[in-house]
Design goal:
Radius of gyration: 16 Å
C-alpha cells in the first residue's frame, strides 16, 4: 500500500503536540495532558460530580472532546505514522495514550475531588493505573494491538483506559 507522507498536522496530532518525541517513555508524556486538564477544570470549579449539572456537563464534555479528537487522529493518521516511523504502533505516537488516559477521569465520585488532597490522590491514581495497564496490556489489550494501522495503535489504550476506569472507580468509592 502506498501512502502519502505524514503531514505536519497529522504528526502534531499523533505526537500530542510533540510530546511523543520526549524521552524516556513518550507514552507517559502523552498521558500527562488529560491529567493536567482534568486538574485544571476541577480547580476552576468544573467537577465530574457534585458541583452542579452545568459543571458536570462541562467537565465531561471537555474530556469527551479530547477523547474524540485523539481517537480520530489515531484512526485517521495511524497508517501514515506506521509508514513514517517504519514501525507498528510507533512509540512517538502518543495520541492513543492521550485518549485512553481521559477514560479513568470520567464520572469520578464527588468525594474523590472534594479537596486538594483527595484530588491529587485521585489524579495520581488515575495516571498510575492507566500507565501500568497500558504497559502491561492485560487481556484483551494485547490482542487489540494486533489490529492494523490506527485501530491497532488506539484500541489497546482504550482497553487499558476502560480497565483503569474500573480500578479507579472501585478505589475512589471505597477510599473516599
Amino acid at each position: 500500500m502506498s501512502l502519502r507522507p505524514l503531514s505536519r498536522f497529522g504528526a502534531a496530532m499523533l505526537t500530542t503536540g510533540g510530546l511523543g518525541h520526549f524521552r524516556p517513555a513518550p507514552g507517559t508524556w502523552g498521558s500527562l495532558p488529560p491529567i493536567a486538564l482534568a486538574g485544571a477544570l476541577m480547580l476552576l470549579g468544573w467537577r465530574p460530580e457534585g458541583a452542579g449539572l452545568i459543571s458536570s456537563i462541562g467537565y465531561h464534555s471537555v474530556l469527551a472532546l479530547v477523547i474524540i479528537v485523539f481517537c480520530w487522529a489515531c484512526v485517521r493518521f495511524g497508517d501514515f505514522a506506521e509508514v513514517h516511523f517504519n514501525k507498528k504502533d510507533p512509540g512517538s505516537v502518543c495520541a492513543d495514550e492521550t485518549a485512553g488516559q481521559c477514560l479513568p477521569l470520567l464520572a469520578l465520585p464527588a468525594a474523590a475531588t472534594a479537596g486538594p488532597v483527595p484530588l491529587a490522590l485521585t489524579l495520581t491514581l488515575a495516571f498510575l493505573t492507566f500507565r501500568l495497564l497500558d504497559i502491561l496490556k492485560p487481556w484483551p489489550a494485547g490482542r487489540l494491538q494486533r489490529y492494523p494501522g490506527g485501530w491497532g495503535i488506539l484500541l489497546d489504550d482504550l482497553a487499558a483506559g476502560v480497565q483503569a476506569v474500573i480500578i479507579v472507580q472501585l478505589v475512589t468509592r471505597l477510599a473516599f
